[in-house]
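Journal club side-thread
Mid-discussion, someone asked how the predicted structure for our own chain would compare to the paper's figures. Pasting it here so we can look after the session.
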Amino acid sequence: MIKRVAGTAPEKQPEQPEITCALPDKPRWGERLARNVALAGLLMVTVAAMRNAELPSGGTVLTAVRQMIDGEWDGGALGKISFVGSFLPETVAVFFESAPDAALTAPCFGSLSHAWTAEEPYLGYAGQDQQVYAVAPGQVMSVYHGPEEEYILRVRHDDGLETMYYALASVFVSEGDAVSVRTCLGRALPEGVVIEVRRAGRAIDPTALISERTGSAP
């Protein structure tokens, strides 16, 4: 509005500044792809560094992470033990599963009685003398009683694998014991022993990793 005063020129109101809004450009498809590839490369380099980095105790950073993820089992829940579960997202677990395959030895002098399947992810063996051996060097982590008073044994190996031994009638080792492929862990029930192999908390098919136990019992 312009006001007029006698003897003076009309007074103009100050002009309002023009307001503009600049919207950020959307990242182009190529830029997004390049960024994602760079992030994936950085993650792979980090995982590779973790594999090779050693802790003061002699273990690797990757092993320590696995141990934190796995945790210890609750003994009160043993009656509800089921053959494995997935504790890691698929996109993370793939880095753990890329570790080199370990050589394993059959847990007894006998024959395979149950093949590994996705629905029943374990191996069953019928032994000649019911003696059950460790499939690889490692350390006994836990010894449990199963739902029907059978023993269940958990062994952790240096290569990041874990093995579970089910249907044991007796156990000859204790928690914390170091074992080798010639260590007799215990005796199986007449039906045979059942073993499960895990990597990073996930059941894996160990069929291609296990070789027949040869020779004779120690």
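Post-session note: Helices lie at 29-52, 61-70, 90-97.
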